[in-house]
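Supplementary notes for students who missed Thursday's class. We covered one full example, reproduced here. Read the sequence, then the structure, then the short commentary at the end.
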Amino acid sequence: MKSTRELTNLLVAMAALLLLPASVQAEDSRAEKTMIKAWQSFNRGEYRLAESLLIRSTRLSQKSPEEKEQFATSLCNRATVMSERGDYGSAEPLFKEALRIYRELHEEDHPYIAVLLNNLAVLYYRAGHYQEAKPLYQDVLKRSRSRLGDEHPALAINHNNLAALYSKLENYPGAIEHLQASLAIHRKSVGTMHPAYASSLNNLGAVYFLMGRYDKCEPLYEEALSIRQDTLPDSHPDIALSYNNLARLRCAQKRFEESALLFKKALAIRKSCFGKRNTLIAVTLNGQAELYLSMKNYKKADKLFREALAMREQLLGEEHADVAESLLGRARVQTALGKPAIAAIFTNRALVIKKKIHDQDHLAIIAHSGD
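Structure (token representation):
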């Protein structure tokens, strides 16, 4: 069995990290062994199995009250899987309880405290609470630099996470800077044929896509997919992410048949991993709606926008950035149908959400509203 250090080094590809027990020797407790199985399932993208194993691990830990650290680790890992599956409301209190226990047991510079802060920031990011995520991400990067130096593999994930946040805030130069730093670290640490490197390539491609630089986006997306297909199982969520992103690009390039096929592949994998109702399912539905809108099939587009919007409102709340995206999609459909009054209702709702996310002087909040 690999050492804890070796196993931890394999986690750099994840936006959120699972914690490992302090030791993984043959004499480990049942809770620790169950935690290792959960970690393995998580890395394969088998989130449902990972969560069930972590629930079991937490129960086993509770039978040994003196093992507080093991219990906190189980809580953190269970919360991480919940966050990956989009159950943010249930995950947040588990993260906070685990963080409280670790701070009770360790000094503030303990590496697991940084992991917990990172995972809590990931949760806030995915829930659309970007201003809450930002100081946590910045704190984690500062801690990592202080403890590990500027070129340690762990810093690559910190750079990736900050890049994703800056992209949401439409600070694209800041996002590119962090992604270039992440890629440089990966080249030295894991090489260019590793899922972690593919994630940074994909993320850089996504920034260029948002900037409308499809010429720079395409080779990055294609290389990321190729690496993932060579290094991950066919049903891994990261492969679905590549399919989904390439589908959006093909739609923008008006290569509609290719786009439709890629969206279909992404949706099949995501349903297999997450079930029929998940935030990532909504992402693909919204992308399919954009495709039909581009093809001028307005009835089908509006149906899919409505489905994505309803799912996002239920799972994320009514003030999430993704809800604004679906609202703007519906507005564009109504504009195309010659119904500007209805379109304005959706646009105004979206602008209210965007103004809460961005600074008041952020001019990009009206992007897409007149398309």
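Commentary. The radius of gyration is 21 Å. The chain has 17 helices and no strands. If anything here is unclear, bring it to office hours.
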